[in-house]
Amino acid sequence: MAGRPGNDSTRSLVALSHFIKPHHSVTLDEFVNAVSALDIHASEIISAASTSAGLDAARNSLLGRKNGELSRLMKSLPSLSPEERRDAGAAVNRSKTAIEELLATRQLNLAVTTELRSQVDLTMPARQQWRGSRHPVTVVIEEIESIFRELGFTIALGPEAETEWYNFTSLNFPEDHPAMDMHDTLYLSDDVLLRTHTSPVQIRTMQSTTPPIRILAPGNVYRRDFFDASHAPMFSQIEGLAVDEGISFVDLKATLTHFANRFFGSTKTRFRPSFFPFTEPSAEMDVECQICRGSGCSSCKNSGWIEILGSGMVHPNVLEAAGLDSERYTGWAFGMGPGRIAMLRYKIPDIRLLYDSDMRFLTQLAQ
Amino acid sequence: MNASYQWLRDFVDIDLAPLELRDLLTARCATVDDVVVLRQDLAGVVVARVVEAAAHPDSDHLWVTKVDAGSGVLHDVVCGAPNVVAGTLYPYAPVGTVLPGGLKLEKRKIRGAVSEGMLCSARELGLGSDHQGILALDVDAQPGARFLDVMPVGDTRLVVDVLPNRPDLLSHEGLAREIASATGRELHRPMHPPAVLVHARQVSEPVPSIEVVVDDTEGAPRYMTAIVRNVKVGPSPDWLAARMEAVGARSISNVVDVTNYMLHGFGQPIHAFDVRKLGGGKIIVRKGRSGERIVTLDGVERTLDDTMTVIADANSAQAIAGVIGGKGSEVTEETTDILIEVASFNPRGIRATRRKLGVSTDASYRFERGVDEAALSDLLNYAAELIQRVAGGAMEGNPTDHGQQPAPRSPITLRSSRVARVLGKDIPVSEMAKNLASIGFKCVVEKENLVVTPPTFRQDVVGEIELIEEVARLEGYESFSAELRPYRPGSRMDAPLYDAARSVRTACVAFGLMESRPMPFVRDGIDAHRVRNPLAEDEAYLRTSVLDTLARRVEYNFGRMLGNVRLFEVGTVFASEIDAETAAPGEAMHVGAVITGDRNPAHFTQPHPSHFDEWDAKGLAQSIAEAAYPGSAVKCVPSPGDSLWILSVDGVEAGSVSKLELDSPAWASPVFGIELNLEAVVLSSKLSRQYAPIPTMPAMRVDLALLVPDNVSADSVGVVIREAAGDMLESLVVFDEFRGAGIPDGLRSLAWALTFRHPERTLRDKEIQGRTGKILSVLESKLGIRQRSS
Q1: Checking phi first, is residue A163 left (phi over 0); if not, alpha (psi -120 to 50) or beta?
Q2: What is the dihedral of CA B675, B681, B684, B686, to 10 degrees?
Q3: For residue range B292-351, what is the model confidence (pLDDT) as tens digits?
Q4: Closest Cα to residue A189, out of B542, B199, B603, B725?
Q5: What is the C-alpha to C-alpha distance for residues B635 and B646, in angstroms, rounded to an integer?
Q6: Which end of chain B is more exposed for a tag (fewer CB within 10 A), N or C?
Q7: Are A182 and A224 in contact (CB under 8 A)?
């Protein structure tokens, strides 16, 4: 008999041998359990049959008129009461039908395998399913997120329609100053605007959280920029903020350098002075151009470097505006554009491709 | 800011090559975006020695020369210059060179003599107007050396990105100050060639003197003028014209170029008026008059108002203060007497004016960021002197000076302990003092602290923190460690909404949808918020539904002949309600999904796959909602409105499933859309599913075909079956619906699969038969539904 080795199979055989003694006296429950055990046993030896001959042998051992397992089981029927016998008979019939179905299916399977080997052109294409995917920008955001999570950061969110106070005033923007020119703003009313950066989440977080604060705030931001190959009136940004006692510029540099090494693979970085009203000192972080490896090419405007993020130590005025004691707490913050990073990574020449939602584009970059 | 490498060298000795200078400036103060090598049109010109010069046999003014250009071979060059002398070095353009005028040199015969290339005059090289002869070079160079390497005509332009806090870097002097500090050199003001002999014009009629009145002291806190008489306006000397060209400005005339020289050199915009064109002998600094008009230097007539500051004569406005001059008093070739204005204007006023007029100039750019009021007097004298040097004339009387002397800067205490806390590094006080002093800060050491007085040109430094930035910058950002130090992890929990968004993305991706991240602007909308200053009318409103924007994305794909579109988005919608406290519109994060086209990719075994239908949409909606609200009761309730189903979560309406009516081409299959608010119900906690024992007892399945009236929903039949079946009913599924032959009108046959199981024992046929009988009788009594007779 073509039984597979293994514990399950052995156990069911042991159970069977106990019940298939002919004329053995049994209760109805014992009989029904034996039928169930036979079902399991049948399914095992049928699946194990790998040739037509093997399948014939399995059929014989299960349904053979004289020595088939089912026939032998039937020989215990007389020990049951007539009423019990009806239930038992029904169980036997169900089992027989099930075994016959299994045998037929297996036979078909064996036939198909044979056919596949002989007649079918196996070079024909596979059957596909539609595959879904996250947007390339989401992929970049989640990758950035996973690196910062290792460094103790959690996710915070904030509204996209913000007040001028959260977007500018609390962030130390001087009123009516050229610094505002970097933030051409879409207004909803005198005081309400579409946030121009994710930095308002800094204020909202500091207002509602006692340090240590380490948050990452991904979100959409808006600028009054015409939609062209390199500008979009809405784009994604990720803000980072770390505030605690004893946080310094060294922490900023170390954390962001670590991030760059993780995200871009071990890479050179440089920090250069910059200006944001809400940080002081401010620094821009560049990584070595991944295309020319620093020797200068068109992607990096021959500088050898690619600008990745703006950062700085949180300005004391900003800490105070959010209700934190700026003598006790220090902090650093950064902001970067996952869209721009996605464009660099996937060599996307036109930012509009990120918004069009062309199925061909999304399928190309699916992962 | 365009900076000329050569110009910077007027201010400080620089040993660094332009690219090294780029890196230095970028690392220390402002990023250099680009380095442009100028005069590359002269790249092919080399220094050559004329070895032999003989008269051309067939000409009385041509020379036939032998030229050594360092290649080891002498070239025959025919030359028409009277000043060619054997043994002298000249610029030589070999065959193949293209000269600045566009002339490409080829080997040719001139009156029978072969000529290979050309010896060049200054004009032919674009180095001035001298065409009297070829340019004899008095340099110590070997034949063959590149002309650009030997002569100081070449220059390199550094394009510097100066950020709004550092107006002091908008000048060569300012950049040179940083370079001097970084390289340990002295900063000095340029020495110009001694006054050239410029013949003053003879002017017979007397010129009125000019009275200066400053009415608008708020608009012009400091206003100084000087008059230079008898100037000769003409072309600039070569050095001045070269400076203009190097920064990308056009050389206009000696006087105008001096004004631009002051702007680019020292960051101080100055203006020159033609004294004879000023009416009434007056300069009046006043507010503009509403409706007053002026034709500005660019030839445009502009209308002023009373918020703007103007420089007027006795009759009318002659310049828009700090923004642009007027045509009426422009300095021209005929000008003999000029009034030089050196002033500081109110930055906000300038900003408002240039925005209102839509004209931004190099001058307005600098006034808006603030000029150094303390430097005005010096610069006025410098400018007047420079004009006399390049245009002759003489200064008349003393300069006028209106307005207050700027207040002295107050000292700021810089605590070394604070520096260490913010920067994470101990920096000796003496080192800080030395560095700060090198860029003009006055420092007094007081024990562990420094008392620092910032210079007048650094108005951006107002407190200790700005000084700390200066310390870090001067120390060099690269000198700080990048070693991770111990930190405390953040104390804040993740935003729950972000978790929901992530789960929803996973559900959508699993279904085969692609994520879209479109813009949330729409053409119009009922109750939608309008952007006050939209970029375009067709994107003037904020969407109230994610499906609104996704529908446009489907149409976009249809427009590109793509019929299989499966998109989703997790994004913000803006509700009509206004938050009472902030006056901002209500916002919610929604997920939207659209499906249309083939249910699966075509395969040779099934060349024409079926299309997505409402049942796919319903299933997708349920899995999205279950992902967003784990542990909550999600239901698709048939909708009374335009949509197919309302999605309810714990009984709260949270979204809908609809068939979308789009601008679809004829070949497109139906489009179904789902929208779900991720903030409809607040999840009480992160509920996780609970384990239930895996069944060990066998199940029994009963199939029932029921004749159900059209007006009785499958849902209500299911409720009755479940009630009557009791606990042992493990699952209940409708697996077939049939109308037609054998089924009376108004009825349909619904086939149900009922799976029964008891957790602890095997079920008997009889009890299942009994249970089935009970179900059938309850169905009949409650709903009048009978079994279909086979």
Answers
A1: beta
A2: 0
A3: 999 999 999 999 999 999 999 999 999 999 999 999 999 999 999 999 999 999 999 999
A4: B542
A5: 8
A6: C
A7: no
Q: How far apart are CA B98 and CA B80, in angstroms?
A: 19
Q: Which residue has the tokens 């994520």?
A: B515
- B486 and chain A: CB distance < 8 Å anywhere? no
Per residue in B125-149, pLDDT (tens digit) is 877 666 678 888 877 888 988 888 8
CB B350 within 8 A of CB B289: no
Q: What is the dihedral of CA B282, B284, B290, B292, to 10 degrees?
A: 40
Q: What is the CATH number of domain A136-364?
A: 3.30.930.10
Domains of chain B: 2-38+155-183 (3.30.56.10), 40-150 (2.40.50.140), 211-403 (3.50.40.10), 412-479 (3.30.56.10), 496-677 (3.30.930.10), 700-787 (3.30.70.380)
Tell me the two tokens of residue B43.
């790249």
The complex's ipTM works out to 0.87
Residue ranges in B317-463 assigned as alpha helix (H):
347-357, 362-369, 376-391, 416-423, 429-437
Rounded CA-CA distance B526/B544 in Å is: 9
Which residue of B165, B512, B533 is in closest CB contact with A130?
A: B512
Q: Which residue of B has its CA nearest to A161?
A: B584
Q: Any idea where the domains of chain A sit in the sequence?
A: 7-118, 136-364
Q: Is B783 helix (H, G, I), strand (E, B) or coil?
A: helix
Q: Hey, CA dihedral for A114, A118, A120, A123, is it positive or negative?
A: positive
- B756 DSSP β-pair partners: B700, B729
* Contact between B492 and A205 using a beta-carbon 8 Å cutoff: yes
Suggest the residue from A83, A120, A127, A130 to mutate for an interface test with chain B (most B CBs closer than 10 A): A130
B-chain CB neighbours of A255 within 8 Å are 484
